[in-house]
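Encode chain A's predicted structure.
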Amino acid sequence: MAYSSKDLSVLAYANGFTLWHYTTVDLATEVDTRGYFNGAADLLRVGDMILANTDTDGAPVTGVFVVGSNAAGVVDATNITPFGASNAD
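Encoded structure for chain A:
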């Protein structure tokens, strides 16, 4: 799939930093691909964090991406850092 602006929302903003939330059926490895967030290049700044729910229609992964670069309209987010650990009952 591709980036969808309706699925990106602001959670908090302070001192030039924005904490975002993004949800998608795309895999985390697709979301962290350079250029995935180009449609939001005018919103995202280096250092912004994106809390994410990925692969929501499959094997969901939750975690955080960090905007690593945003230059000339090309956004690159870091690989996802997952939240939580496996639940071995």
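The chain has one domain: 5-82.
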